[in-house]
Specification:
With 238 residues, this protein is α/β, with parallel strands linked by helices. It is globular. A hairpin with a 5-residue loop joins strand 11 and strand 12. The strands form three sheets. It has a six-stranded mixed β-sheet with strand order 3-5-8-7-9-13. A five-stranded mixed β-sheet has the order 1-14-6-2-4, with no helix packed on it. A three-stranded antiparallel β-sheet has the order 10-12-11. It has helices spanning 44-58, 125-130, 132-137, 165-168, 190-201; strands at 15-19, 63-66, 74-76, 83-84, 88-91, 97-102, 106-112, 118-123, 148-152, 162-163, 178-180, 186-188, 206-208, 230-236. The mean pLDDT is 96. 44% of the residues are buried. The longest helix has 15 residues, at 44-58.
Length: 238
Amino acid sequence: MITKYEIDWNIPNNIGYFISTNETGFSRGNYRHANFSFAVGDQKKTVQLNINSLKNLLNVNNITFMNQSHSNIVLEVDRNRDMLDCDAIYTTNHEISCAVLTADCIPILITEKSGKFIGCVHAGWRGLKSGIIENFFNTFPKIKKSDFKVLLGPCIGSNNFIVKDDVYKHFKKYSDRFTKSKSGNYCMDIRSIANDILTDLGVSDVTISRSCTYNGNFYSYRKQKVTGRFISLIWFKK
């Protein structure tokens, strides 16, 4: 059984969503317990056990994962695919679910008020810098920005996300989302910057998790370099 992170998100009844924690699952050692990434050194058989357990729990057959690289690439999934080279995906195919894997970056789940499409975005500071959020929402010029429904999942909190001046200089527009750290560097509030970008786009129906991956029941790359990735999943209910 994979443990669910509980957060209320007001979306159409035909859409399901799930965010995992690392409290239970089949992975061991640095990856305990529910690691969903094949790319971080965990045993492939235990990762597959975690995936299969989640599929059985949710009655989901097909999960599309992304080979995430902090890009600004957005792709449509129109058929069953195991892995796509991008950092955002979407679909209207009711046989497909969309997954984003994270361990400090922001997992973003998206649908709209009529429940006709689903999507997800992987957004760390590099993705925010390169415009992954803007690229995603500008892919849908026919959908009113006010019709989108967005969930910003658990990510690293500003107190634990210390960056240097080379990162700060890319976000001068959002300089109020940085505070000076004791070391002379900056504490960066990536979740607030993401929400500011959504606001600038006209996307206002946003639910925000306040949980910090560094301190919570999640994986944190900043805390432990060798670690797993938790899953944020969205799908069409049968």
